[in-house]
Design a protein that fits this description.
single chain, about 220 residues, alpha/beta, Carbamate kinase, 4-stranded mixed beta sheet, two-stranded parallel ribbon, 9 helices, about 15% strand, globular
Length: about 220
């Protein structure tokens, strides 16, 4: 879950309550490991820290702290069926999923984005489906927020995703539809993947329940 969809200052409470309702009504045999991004909070601290001369590892650590703030929000709304604190490692996330229906965490250590953490968890867990919830309704040929000619991609291969995101900067606070490391993990592990607007809960439900949805399907190869 991108941090920009968790805390947007636009009906955040209603959105969080609605996503709780959605997750609780899904089949009880489904288990979710949810990784939260840091969003604007992380970017604000990273930009300020960079201006003050902080090194990239320190900036990553600031971003990780912000992701865990968002994790606490999701843990608070999910209640007793959720692992009681943000996981701090991939191993802790996997162990938590053995006993809880929901496990939530953010970043784990400097140098890895939450996209990368999500993909590595999905690989280790042998997840049935990896869903990347972003602020746009799928992958585009370029950033639709700045390029009016950007075209939405409904379906693409995992190698195509690698090509699409290959130019993303590898530094604290960088942003694209998916981190290049995550794309590489998805490709090598052949993980079924979907990219969609995290605030479109109808499409999220359709995706989880294997119906057509508004977003981008990443096909393993």
């Amino acid at each position: 879950m991108g941090g920009s969809i968790i805390k947007r200052d636009e009906d955040d409470i209603r959105y969080l309550n609605d996503i709780r309702t959605l997750l609780m009504r899904l089949k009880g045999d489904l288990t979710f490991i949810i990784v939260t991004g840091g969003g604007r909070t992380a970017r604000d601290y990273i930009h300020l820290g960079r201006d003050l001369g902080a090194d990239e590892t320190t900036l990553d650590s600031m971003g990780i702290a912000a992701t865990r703030l968002n994790s606490w929000l999701i843990i608070s709304l999910l209640g007793e069926g959720c692992y009681p604190a943000p996981f701090h490692s991939i191993e802790e996330a996997l162990n938590g999923a053995a006993g809880f229906r929901f496990v939530v965490g953010g970043g784990t250590h400097p140098g890895h984005t939450t996209d990368a953490v999500s993909a590595m968890i999905a690989e280790r867990w042998k997840a049935d489906l990896f869903i990347n919830l972003t602020a746009v309704n799928g992958a585009y040929t370029s950033d639709p927020n700045v390029d009016e000619n950007a075209k939405k991609i409904d379906e693409m291969s995992s190698s195509g995703l690698i090509s699409l995101v290959s130019s993303t900067e590898k530094k604290a606070g960088s942003h694209s539809v998916m981190d290049p490391t995550a794309a590489e993990v998805i490709h090598r592990a052949r993980i079924r993947t979907a990219i969609l607007d995290g605030r479109d809960l109808g499409s999220l439900a359709d995706c989880i329940e294997e119906r057509p949805f508004d977003g981008t399907r990443i096909l393993p190869e």
